[in-house]
TrEMBL record:
This is Berberine/berberine-like domain-containing protein. GO terms for molecular function: flavin adenine dinucleotide binding; oxidoreductase activity. Gene3D superfamilies: 3.30.465.10. It comes from Thioalkalivibrio paradoxus ARh 1. Residues 9-32 form the Berberine/berberine-like domain. It comes from the Bacteria.
Amino acid sequence: MEAALGPALQRLAEIKQRWDPDNRFRVNRNIPPSGKGHG
């Protein structure tokens, strides 16, 4: 996914951490919250 999003991935992960820290919205191409591991 890093190849597709490049530097935007880190920013998106930070936003995800703020709005969805439990990763409830994880279908399709998931961006894990910045506090979680990749998986």
